[in-house]
């Protein structure tokens, strides 16, 4: 059977339209960050919004008002957490990851890569995805807070000012880096 009754189909259609409008209003009211992919916390909120929408649409026991309250609560919690993380360093450390230097000046930091569960092959793949075929052409690779890789070539390094916050993330024991012998792609 494809469906139980026409009433159920109409209910899902009406709930979809209304819940969608409420979700759009909540997201717009909260600002651009509501659906960003800036960090793991933002991703969790985005997934939770999607899960809540699905529950509101398909579960007859969840009223539209309950779904609207859930949307509003998630968006409000994300707003408060983002607001607090901008103003309080301890909150920021609690909810946000920091970018991590994986490769610098041709050297891979294997201790750091193991800690972040990143393989040398994944770093090479990120470099190739940027259109670069040789590690010696890459100045820096950073694992960003959203899990993506930023690859900065030597020709685009400039003053390195975008990496100023990365300097303190390298430590002397991270120097078990491969030398040029690891430049194969």
Description:
The protein has 185 residues and is of the alpha+beta class. The chain folds into two domains: 6-95; 100-182, bsu07140 like domains (CRO Repressor), CATH 3.30.240. It has helices spanning 6-30, 40-58, 64-87, 89-95, 110-116, 120-129; strands at residues 100-104, 107-108, 138-143, 149-153. The protein has a four-stranded antiparallel β-sheet with strand order 2-1-3-4. The protein starts with 5 loop residues before the first helix and ends in a 32-residue tail after the last strand. Residues 170-185 have low confidence and may be disordered.
Key words describing this protein structure:
four-stranded antiparallel β-sheet, single chain, disordered C terminus, CRO Repressor, 10% strand, alpha+beta, 185 residues
Q: How would the blueprint of this fold be written?
A:
Layout: H1 6-30, H2 40-58, H3 64-87, H4 89-95, E1 100-104, E2 107-108, H5 110-116, H6 120-129, E3 138-143, E4 149-153
Antiparallel strand pairs: 1-2, 1-3, 3-4
Helix pairs in contact: 1-2, 1-3, 2-3, 3-4
Main sheet attributes: strand count, strand direction, barrel closure? 4 strands, antiparallel
Please work out how many helical segments DSSP would assign.
6
**Structural class, please?**
alpha+beta
Radius of gyration: 23 Å
Instruction: Write down the overall mean pLDDT.
Output: 83
User: What is the number of strand segments?
Assistant: 4
Low-confidence stretches: 170-185
Percentage of residues assigned to helices? 40-55%
Strand content: 5-15%
User: Judging from the principal axes of the Cα atoms, what is the shape?
Assistant: elongated
SSE pattern? HHHHEEHHEE
What count of structural domains? 2
